[in-house]
Each structure stands twice: as C-alpha cells, then as structure tokens.
Amino acid sequence: EYGVFKQSKTGHQALTELWLLRETMPLRVALVLGSTRTAGPPQLLGERVGIFIRDCIVSRGHEVDVVDPLTHAVPLLEKPHFAFSPGRAPHELNQLATRLQKADAYVVCTPEYNHAPSPGLLNILNHFGSSIFSFKPSGIVSYSAGQWGGTRAAHALRPTLSELGCLPVSAMVHIPKAQEAIDPSGIPATRDWDTYADRMLMQLEWWGSATRLHRLRVDPTSVSPVLRSSPNQRNAPVT
After folding, report:
1. The model's pTM
2. How far is CA 183 from CA 39, 154, 171, 211, 228, in A?
3. Torsion angle, alpha carbons of 158, 161, 165, 166, to 10
4. Which of 35, 140, 218, 235 sits most deeply, having the most CB atoms within 10 A of its CB?
C-alpha cells in the first residue's frame, strides 16, 4: 500500500508531512569523535572541533549524543559486537550499540593521521555491523593543524560509512588550521564557519527526516534482510 507516501497524497502534502515531522521531532544525532590523544605536541584540536560541531547541530534544534573514544573506553578490536551471541557481548559494548542504533543520523569527526582517519574512530565503527547504522545518513567532519583540513582522511571515510549503510551526504566539513579557526571553547573565529557547517547539516537533516519517516512506514529489513550468519548470504547466485 505504501511507497514513499500513500498514492492519494499530493507532493505538497508529502512535503508538509516531512516538514511537520522535522519540526515536532528533532533528530537524534550521534556525534562520533575520533581523537584519542591526551598530550601534544602537536596541539590538541579534537575537543574544540567537537564542541563546535555539537553546538552547530544543537542550534538547528536536534539532539546530540556525543560518543568520545576518550571517555567511552572501547577496547582494541578483538571481537566485534555482532560476533557475540545475543546478550553475551560486554556490557559497555551493548550500551554503545544501543545508543548508536537509536540515532537517526551520524556525524563522524576525524583528525588526519598519515592521510588516513584516526584509529580511535575506526576502532569504534568497526566494532559494529551495518544492522546498527543502516538506512540512515551520515556526515563527515575533518580537521588538521595544516592547510588541508584532513580532506584525505574524510574521503577515506566515505567507503567505510557506505559499507555500514549510513550513506554520507555529499557536503563535508573540512577545517584547516583548526587552532586558528576554532578557539578552545569551540567558538569559531568567524560565523562563516557556522554557515559552512550548516550546508552539511542541512543535507543530513533532510535525509535523516526522510529516512526516519520511511522507516516508520516500511521495515527496511523486510526487503533487505540483516546478515545473520555468513558473508556468503550476500554472494551472487551460482550459475
């Protein structure tokens, strides 16, 4: 009976419904930070960038759940959450899985180490399977002390997030010379940074609102079942 909307609804009614949902139900956004460094040099920049992005999300009326690898001690990956039998995973992993699964959208925030995303961020993401993240959007934020703003790390995250099922929106946020762009309390040097971040966040909330509404109408796992036992379940047919 349902496609994206009932056939009897006009395009205007559909857009109105999406807008009302956006207004009455803020998105729950999981902001996953990437830095695990506790001392410099070089200068520590992750906290200020995280505060800035958190405040940008909140200013748009959404709820933010900050997942910080410094305060949420996820062990180095030995056995991922999805490899445990139901109810047998460590308590901390179960708690984090629940928080991530409740999110309507994700923002991942990474420094750049050797042209790559931070190990702490990838460690968190790799503990969980696509059943946690799928059918929701994600946004990417990167930063560096130099002139490139972590762009290479950001682009390296796109296939990871896509494989997890939380497709990244096209706009990304790159912050070069973050020590100059954002002060230690998360205040940008110019409000142009808010405008810049809003482009990514606007795309994130558009897709987040749309996918949330559609998940209420159609169970996505009914047409794209969760991988249960073996990667072979995704193999092409044998001819």
Report:
1. 0.87
2. 17, 22, 23, 35, 46
3. -90
4. 140
